[in-house]
Specification:
Elements (H helix, E strand, L loop, with lengths): L3 H18 L4 H19 L9 H8 L7 E5 L5 H9 L4 E6 L2 H10 L8 E5 L12 E7 L5 H7 E11 L11 H9 L3 E9 L2 E8 L4
Parallel strand pairs: 1-2, 1-4, 2-3, 4-5
Antiparallel strand pairs: 5-7, 6-7
Helix pairs in contact: 1-2, 2-5, 3-4
The site of S-adenosylmethionine (SAM) has 20 residues, from α2, α4 and β2.
């Protein structure tokens, strides 16, 4: 019998490794990735356990200042975006994702009192539809990083966050050393690492303009 879950996880890992090393090849994976998450959207929330967002929450708890504008990249059904909205009551948050089905679920998951501040938009993380320096925080939970775009949209002094719910066992996973190297070459200078639940996270601060 075909193990579709195992194939999906393997595909996500290969797509991540290739996109991180050769971002231009991402477009080869994009249609299948979108199809995969469109198909998973109706059950995605049922995969979540209590500690799935523990590394992500640990990293946002370490932020000293409330970010005014946040993009949650690869937001899926919006759990990360909603956690940010609850933690930062003034922040405006946009969650972006390739998969319209995931976004439909994210909108259904958003309580009425957060709908003004938390919005969802279809977009590709490799070509974000935002101006340079648009955000004080770009967050990623279990998401492939596109470093050039992260560095472009995060304002000087702002942060980028990368969390992986099951650490190195997460299908979409990038090792901390690799994240740090890629971010350092793009002007991120301060790093904080977190282990929480079964996973890990990295928070990086972009150099302030001087
Ligand atoms: C593993 S899921 C994580 C969803 C959510 N962040 C969470 O942790 O529950 C990865 C999500 O990223 C989206 N995604 C993958 N590549 C993307 C890209 N290049 N641009 C935007 N979204 C992308 C997928 O559609 C999927 O919803």
């Amino acid at each position: 019998m075909i193990d579709r879950v195992a194939i999906g996880r393997r595909f996500a890992r290969v797509a991540t490794d290739v996109a991180v090393r050769h971002p231009r090849l991402w477009r080869v994976f994009r249609p299948l990735m979108r199809k995969q998450f469109d198909a998973l959207a109706h059950q995605w929330d049922s995969f979540r356990s209590e500690d799935t967002f523990a590394p992500y929450e640990a990293a946002i708890a370490a932020l000293r200042d409330e970010p005014a504008r946040i993009v949650d990249v690869g937001t899926g059904t919006g759990a990360g975006a909603l956690a940010l909205a609850r933690r930062f009551p003034q922040a405006e948050i946009v969650g972006i994702d390739l998969s319209e089905r995931m976004l439909e679920q994210a909108r259904r998951n958003t309580p009425e009192d957060l709908q003004e501040r938390v919005t969802f938009r279809r977009a590709d993380a490799s070509k974000l539809p935002f101006d340079d320096a648009s955000f004080e925080l770009a967050s990623h939970a279990n998401m492939i990083p596109f470093f050039d775009e992260v560095a472009r949209v995060v304002a000087p002094g702002g942060h980028a966050l990368f969390a992986f719910s099951s650490g190195a066992d997460t299908p979409i996973y990038v090792a901390t050393e690799r994240l740090r190297d890629e971010l350092e070459t793009r002007g991120f200078t301060e790093f904080a690492e977190f282990d929480a639940g079964r996973g890990n996270a990295l928070l990086a601060r972009k150099r302030t303009a001087s």
